[in-house]
Every structure is written in C-alpha cells, then in structure tokens.
C-alpha cells in the first residue's frame, strides 16, 4: 500500500503537466485558427489582401464552392486558394485605393550642371 501512496503525487504531476500543456499550446492555437476562419469568412469583394507569398491585391471575386479567391493585382487577375490569404484589410478602411503608382524619378538639372565641370577638370 505504501507504494501506491508514492505514485499518487507522480500521477497528479503528470495530469497537471498535461493540463498546463493544453492551456499553453493547444488552446491558443485553436483561438488563432478560429480568428483566421472568421477573417476568411468575412472576406468580400473590394477588400485589400496580402497573400502568404506577400503579394498585395484586391479581392475581385470569391468562389466558396472551390474555396478560391480571384485577386486584382494592378490589372492582373490571379486565382488563389482562400488558405493562401495571410491578412485582410477591409474595404472600408483602405479607402478604395490600395496600390500607389509612383512616377519615375528624373535627375535634377542642378545635378547635371554639377557633373559638367568635373569632366572639364579631368581633361586638363
């Protein structure tokens, strides 16, 4: 009977360790998975998204039967699995514009004038 009393604390510690592992690892993972499912469930046309490959685009259409999303990436339409969406920026907060086009940089006239005297100095 004394041997049974010695194993009781070991069993209690083992059960406590399993419980701690559940609350530290499994439960947060389930919460994160639930948030991700909610994010993908609220996905709608016009939302700006970022894929797991870090491609930025705007949702053009959603096919719930095939679990696919068609993204408009600056005029190029690409189809992805819904699971490839890493994050969503709702259409209301992105203001309808997601992609900024930048004009090419042209050299200033002052830089061109500064380089001309250097060439003359090298020749002499």
Automatic annotation (TrEMBL):
Membrane recorded as keyword: yes
Pfam short name (any one): YajC
Subcellular location(s) of the protein: Cell membrane
Acidic residues: bias regions: 110-124
Region (Disordered) location: 91-124
Protein origin, superkingdom: Bacteria
GO biological process: protein transport
InterPro entries reported for this sequence: Preprotein_translocase_YajC
This protein's GO CC annotations: plasma membrane
UniProt membrane topology term: Single-pass membrane protein
Membrane-spanning ranges: 6-26
Keyword Transmembrane: yes
Record keywords, A-Z: Cell membrane, Membrane, Protein transport, Translocation, Transmembrane, Transmembrane helix, Transport
Stored NCBIfam families: yajC (TIGR00739)
Annotated family: Belongs to the YajC family.
Entry protein name: Preprotein translocase subunit YajC
